[in-house]
Write a structure and sequence with these properties.
Strand order of the largest sheet: 1-11-10-9-8-2-3
Low-confidence stretches: 1-8, 382-386
Mean pLDDT: 92
Shape: globular
Distance between the termini: 63 Å
Bound molecules: iron/sulfur cluster
Helix content: 25-40%
Strand content: 15-25%
Number of strands: 15
Radius of gyration: 22 Å
Order of helices and strands: EHEEEEHEEEHHEHEEHHHHHEEEEHHH
Largest sheet: 7 strands, mixed
C-alpha cells in the first residue's frame, strides 16, 4: 500500500516485494533486464522473476581480473557493474538496419530494423545511468542545443520507451572511481525509481511520474528514521571505499597539452590493441556497417555493429589508416574519454565504472596512466614536448 511519502519523499520497499515490482513491469509489457549470474560473471539480461536476479554473490575486480565469490545471502546487489552495460540493450552490438533482395534491376526491401523493445532496466548502477545520459548526447536524445552527432532513431526510440530502476552502490569494486567522476555511488537524477539496499528491503525514491505511479502499485511503507540513516551510512561508506581515484581538476587542460607525452610510448608497449576497453565501456558509441550477402540468393542484409578506435581499420581511408600505431590509438581513446569528449559533447566521456580496467587483458588502468602524465608534467618533474 502506498503512503503519502510516495509523493516526493522516500519510501520503503520490503525485499519480498521486489518480485512484485518485476511482475508489475512485465504486466505492463516491459522486457525486464537485470543483473544475473551467468557462469563466472555478472551480466545484465532478461529476468522473468526476482529469482533470476543474482543474489548472495559478490565480485572482486582489479586490473585484468574479475572473480565472483559468495556474498551475503540476504543481499542481492553486492556486485558492482558486470561486463555488459545498458548500452548493450539500447545500442546493441549488432543490429539489423535492413534486408533487401534484387528483383529485376531494383532493390526490394524485405525487412527494416527489428522492433525496439520496451525495456525496464532493474538494478542498473548510478555510473551506468550517467553513461546513458552521456550516450543520449552522442545519439541526439534529450537536451537540445548539445553538440551531437546526427539523431539516432533506434537508440532514441528505445530510450523514450524505457523505464529505469537504479540501485545505488553500497559496495564498490576495486576498479570503481565513480565518486571522482561525480556519477556515484548514489544516483542524482535521471531515474524513474532509485533504490538503496538494506537487509530487509530497499529505501526507494521516485524520480518521475512513471516511478511514482509504479510505487503506488507496490506494497511500500514509510521508512523508519533508522532505515534512512542506515542507507546514508552505507552510501557514505561506499564513497570512502572507492577502489580507484582519478584527479579530474585540470585534467582536460593537462591532456590537451600532452599530445606528444612519452607516456604514450610506454603504454603502447603494453597495450594489445584488442579493443576490450571500448567494447565494455558504457559510453563508447562507434559503429560500422557490414553487408552480408547470401550465397545462391540475391538477398543482402545490412548490419550495424560496434567498432573500436583501437582497431587498425577503424580510421582507414584511401590513404591508409589515420592512426596506424598502438600509441596513436591508445592516446586517441584515452584523450577522447577524458579530454576531447568535453569539446565534442560538453561532458566527460568517462563515468568511472572501471570496466576498461577490469577487462583489459594487460591490466592497463586509465586512472594510473592519467596520474603518471600528471606527475610527469608537474612543474620541474620531466621535460615534455607538446
Ligand atoms: S573509460 Fe573505462 S572507466 Fe570510464 S566509463 Fe569507459 S569503461 Fe568505464
Ligand atoms: S588498453 Fe587494454 S583493453 Fe584497451 S585495447 Fe589496449 S590491451 Fe586492449
Amino acid at each position: 500500500m502506498a503512503t503519502d511519502e510516495v509523493g516526493g519523499g522516500r519510501s520503503f520497499l520490503p525485499r519480498g516485494a521486489l518480485g512484485e515490482l518485476i511482475g508489475v513491469l512485465r504486466a505492463d509489457g516491459y522486457t525486464v533486464i537485470g543483473p544475473r549470474r551467468e557462469g563466472a560473471v555478472l551480466l545484465l539480461g532478461e529476468v522473468g522473476s526476482a529469482e533470476d536476479l543474482a543474489r548472495g554473490v559478490r565480485d572482486e575486480q582489479e586490473g585484468g581480473r574479475y572473480r565472483l565469490g559468495p556474498g551475503d545471502p540476504d543481499l542481492g546487489f553486492e556486485c558492482a557493474v558486470g561486463m555488459n552495460s545498458p548500452k548493450s540493450f539500447f545500442f546493441p552490438a549488432m543490429q539489423r538496419m535492413y534486408r533487401c533482395h534484387v528483383e529485376g534491376e531494383r532493390f526490394m526491401l524485405d525487412a527494416g530494423p527489428a522492433q525496439v523493445s520496451k525495456l525496464a532496466m532493474v538494478g542498473i548502477r548510478p555510473c551506468d545511468l550517467a553513461a546513458l545520459r552521456v550516450q543520449d548526447r552522442a545519439f541526439g536524445v534529450g537536451e537540445s542545443g548539445t553538440p551531437r552527432c546526427a539523431a539516432e532513431d533506434l537508440y532514441g526510440e528505445a530510450r523514450r520507451r524505457a523505464l529505469l530502476v537504479v540501485v545505488n552502490c553500497t559496495r564498490p569494486a576495486g576498479t570503481c572511481f565513480c565518486a571522482s567522476m561525480g556519477t556515484g555511488p548514489a544516483a542524482s537524477g535521471g531515474y524513474d525509481l532509485c533504490l538503496t539496499e538494506l537487509r530487509a528491503g530497499f529505501v526507494v525514491e521516485a524520480g518521475s511520474e512513471a516511478g511514482r505511479s509504479l510505487l503506488g502499485r507496490l506494497p511500500v511503507r514509510e521508512p523508519s528514521s533508522a532505515e534512512l540513516e542506515l542507507a546514508e551510512i552505507k552510501l557514505e561508506n561506499a564513497r570512502e571505499h572507492m577502489g580507484r581515484r582519478l584527479e579530474v581538476a585540470g585534467l582536460k587542460e593537462l591532456l590537451d597539452g600532452a599530445v606528444e607525452h612519452p607516456q604514450w610510448d610506454e603504454v603502447a608497449k603494453r597495450c594489445l590493441s584488442c579493443g576490450n576497453c571500448t567494447m565494455v565501456c558504457p559510453t563508447c558509441f562507434c559503429s560500422t556497417v557490414m553487408d552480408q550477402t547470401e550465397l545462391g540468393s540475391a538477398t543482402v542484409t545490412r548490419w550495424r555493429q560496434w567498432e573500436s578506435c583501437h582497431s587498425h581499420q577503424f580510421s582507414y581511408t584511401t590513404a591508409g589508416p589515420v592512426r596506424s600505431t598502438v600509441r596513436g590509438r591508445y592516446r586517441h581513446w584515452m584523450r577522447h574519454k577524458l579530454c576531447t569528449w568535453f569539446d565534442q559533447f560538453g561532458c566527460s566521456g568517462c563515468v568511472g565504472c572501471g570496466r576498461c580496467i577490469t577487462w583489459c587483458p594487460a591490466g592497463i588502468d586509465l586512472t594510473a596512466e592519467a596520474a603518471r602524465i600528471r606527475q610527469a608534467m608537474a612543474p620541474g618533474a620531466v621535460e615534455v614536448t607538446s
